[in-house]
Design a protein that fits this description.
The complex is a heterodimer of chains A (300) and B (154). Chain A has helices at 2-24, 34-43, 49-57, 72-88, 233-241, 251-257, 261-294; strands spanning 99-105, 113-124, 131-138, 141-148, 154-161. Chain A is an alpha+beta fold and 300 residues long. Chain A has a single domain (48-284), classed as SH3 type barrels (Roll). In chain A, a hairpin with a 7-residue loop joins strand 1 (99-105) and strand 2. In chain A, helix 3 (49-57) packs across helix 7 (261-294) and helix 4 (72-88) packs parallel to helix 7. The longest helix of chain A is centred in the C-terminal third of the chain and has 34 residues, at 261-294. Chain A starts with a helix and ends in a 6-residue tail after the last helix. By secondary structure, chain B is of the alpha+beta class. Chain B has a single domain (30-148), classed as Ribosomal Protein L14 (Beta Barrel). Helix content of chain B is 25%, strand content 19%. Chain B has four helices and six strands, in the order H-E-H-E-E-E-E-E-H-H. Chain B has helices at 5-21, 44-51, 127-135, 145-148; strands spanning 38-39, 57-61, 73-78, 81-89, 100-101, 105-109. Chain B has a five-stranded mixed sheet. The longest helix of chain B is centred in the first third of the chain and has 17 residues, at 5-21. Chain B is globular and about 65 Å long. The relative contact order of chain B is 0.16. The chains are: A alpha+beta (300), B alpha+beta (154). At the A-B interface, strand 4 of A face strand 5 and helix 3 of B. Strand 4 of chain A pairs antiparallel with strand 5 of chain B. Chain B: One of its GO terms (molecular function) is structural constituent of ribosome. Chain B: Belongs to the universal ribosomal protein uL14 family. Chain B: Pfam families: Ribosomal_L14.
Chain lengths: 300, 154
């Protein structure tokens, strides 16, 4: 009897605690209750827009969100190393869907450098481990290459076209028609006006017939045509069975996937000044390089 | 409490069927025994096999693991004949900076390492330069002849 009562008490306590926890650790995206909002406003100021935008611009500075694997000292050292690397090479802002040209020193090739042009299909992991993958179709052959973003062998990263896509990952391009991932190797860079919003490319790709690499119909992709015409009855039923439309209301799931707003602003305010200084230096360097090229040389 | 025997037997039946019908793990895309490959050179036999829609099957991989990696020598069954080839593009996951292809590509060679064709249609990875040089032994097969007929490197 006593045990039962204890259990009930525990559960009640847990419930109260859990409410409290959700309330306390609301992630950056979730909306607060009105009462909570007024309280929050009194306690803390809202961070500046430049700071909150940095999570899209520099996603690799945020640590991975699994609490069991985190190491605050290591994260701090990594951030310092990343900034040090950024003083050596200009790592521009780019997103999944942008077209990049990457020049890399390659001991295997004859000229000792190698370059690859492709569409960025994926950005993975964080910190010094952050990776990205480029995809292109050359001579009717689909090719994907994965690079470490902070690899010292990288000589130059150029953004030929800065844009976003409708999805976070474009791995499905492997099963789409080749025209959607074919990019001209000698493409010239398109320059965007500074300070404007990043354009979103809303192309909807058509898929090849079966077999596919993954079950794309279950992933809720926005940049893919309606896949029902490819599916048989069994696969349609399975799609409905495995669908979980309640996931977007799961606050804890989102909390486990994200870094809280307070922590984000702490991290970015730490690097804000230095990264802006580094970017300014790279801009000046680029300007100086342009000036030397345009100068006519008079001999005699 | 154990479930009754009838339930257990039905469970067993379900697992047996499920194990036969579909994969429970992710696909590795490895080159193993009986994997179909794509011939990417212009050798007569390779071109005809690909045109007929009967791509070659791997019947042996010349390494300890029996799983083909990039630059490995394989024996293929192509149009009723046994031919040797070198893997020049892999579908499976690769290390950073090594390209990953949409198909498993092979270039046919003879016993001395001389390619049967005179041209390779698709790009081949630059890392093959080092790998094939290491595999070449003096007085043995010379695999580096393959690099000379490549049209493009990535």
């Amino acid at each position: 009897m006593l045990r039962k009562i204890c259990k009930v008490n525990l559960i009640q306590n847990n419930l109260i605690n859990s409410q409290y926890v959700i309330f306390r650790h609301l992630s950056a995206k979730a909306e607060l209750n009105e009462a909570a909002e007024s309280q929050e406003k009194k306690k803390t100021k809202k961070p500046k827009k430049a700071l909150t935008d940095m999570r899209f611009k520099y996603p690799e500075f945020l640590p991975q969100p699994d609490n069991r694997l985190r190491n605050p000292v290591l994260e701090r050292i990594m951030r310092k190393d990343m900034l040090d690397r950024r003083t050596q090479i200009n790592i521009p802002e780019f997103y999944v869907g942008s077209i990049l040209k990457l020049t890399i020193s390659d001991p295997h090739s004859q000229g000792k450098t190698n370059s690859f042009v492709g569409i960025c299909i994926q950005r993975d992991r964080t910190g010094l481990y952050s990776k990205f993958a480029l995809r292109n179709v050359i001579d009717h052959q689909g090719i994907e290459v994965m690079y470490d973003l902070y690899d010292p062998a990288i000589l130059k990263i150029e953004v030929l076209k800065l844009e976003k896509r409708l999805d976070d990952k474009l791995i499905y391009l492997k099963d789409a028609l080749p025209e959607y991932s074919t990019i001209d190797v000698n493409m010239e860079p398109e320059i965007l006006a500074e300070g404007g919003n990043i354009p979103v490319n809303d192309t909807v790709v058509k898929m090849k017939p079966f077999p596919w690499m993954q079950k794309w119909e279950r992933q809720g992709l926005k940049g893919v045509e309606d896949l029902d015409k490819h599916l048989n009855l069994w696969r349609k039923q399975q799609k409905v069975k495995h669908d979980s439309p309640w996931d977007k209301y799961d606050l804890m799931k989102e909390y486990r996937k994200t870094i809280t707003e307070e922590e984000q602003s702490e991290i970015f305010s730490e690097i804000f000044n230095r990264i802006n200084k580094i970017n300014e230096q790279h801009k000046q360097k680029a300007k100086a390089a342009r000036r030397t090229i345009s100068k006519p040389q008079n001999i005699g | 409490m154990f479930p009754s025997s009838s339930i257990m037997s039905s469970l067993k039946a379900v697992t047996r069927v499920s194990a036969n019908l579909f994969h429970t793990t992710a696909i590795n895309n490895e080159v193993r025994l009986l994997t179909r490959l794509r011939v990417v050179d212009n050798s007569e036999i390779g071109k005809r096999a690909m045109m007929e829609g009967k791509p070659p099957k791997t019947i042996h991989v010349y390494n300890q693991k029996k799983v083909g990696f990039i630059g490995d020598k394989v024996m293929v069954a192509i149009k009723g004949q046994k031919k040797k080839g070198i893997l020049v593009g892999m579908k499976q996951m690769q290390k950073p900076k090594t390209p990953r292809f949409d198909t498993n590509n092979v270039v046919l060679i003879d016993d001395n390492g001389t390619p049967l064709g005179t041209r390779i249609f698709v790009p081949i990875p630059t890392i093959l330069r080092t790998i094939l040089k290491e595999k070449t032994r003096s007085k043995g097969a010379d695999y580096t002849k393959l690099l000379a007929i490549a049209s493009r490197f990535v």
